[in-house]
């Protein structure tokens, strides 16, 4: 597993390299991306710290709830119902 400080440095470098890839190759505005390495503090498989799956880059959107709400279509308006006029067929009492 190694030294925690060294692992944190490697994790930060991995995160920054991924950020730079998206800036350079995909032309993402650098202000939209933040790289943060967590070292061994947030392992995917904490019971298996040497597993390669723990060395990953994970994307998070801190504004996910806001973005999801903004992308939902507005609810359809409820139909307006009006009472029938006294002389309309709908208002005639058929005795039932």
Task: Give structural notes.
31% of the residues lie in helices and 0% in strands. With 96 residues, the chain is mainly alpha-helical. The chain has a domain at 1-53. The longest helix has 22 residues, at 4-25. It is elongated. The termini are far apart.
- Write the H/E string, N to C: HH
Biggest sheet descriptor: none
Summing up helix and strand content along with how strands pair, one would put the structural category as: mainly alpha
Average of per-residue pLDDT values:
84
Ranges with pLDDT <50 over ≥5 residues? Answer: none
What is the 3D form? elongated
Helix % is 25-40%
Please tell me how large the radius of gyration is: 29 Å
Q: Give the CA-CA distance, first to last residue.
A: 82 Å
Determine the number of helices (DSSP H or I, runs of at least 4 residues): 2
Number of strands: 0
Strand percentage, roughly?
under 5%
Blueprint (SSEs and pairs):
Elements: H1 4-25, H2 64-71
Give a short overview:
This protein is mainly α. The protein contains two helices and no strands.
């Amino acid at each position: 597993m190694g030294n925690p400080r060294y692992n944190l440095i490697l994790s930060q470098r991995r995160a920054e390299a991924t950020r730079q890839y998206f800036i350079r190759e995909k032309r993402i505005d650098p202000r939209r991306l933040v790289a943060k390495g967590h070292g061994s503090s947030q392992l995917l498989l904490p019971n298996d710290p040497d597993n390669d799956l723990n060395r990953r880059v994970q994307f998070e959107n801190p504004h996910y709830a806001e973005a999801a709400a903004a992308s939902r279509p507005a609810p359809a308006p409820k139909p307006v119902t009006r009472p029938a006029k006294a002389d309309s067929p709908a208002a005639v009492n058929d005795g039932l």
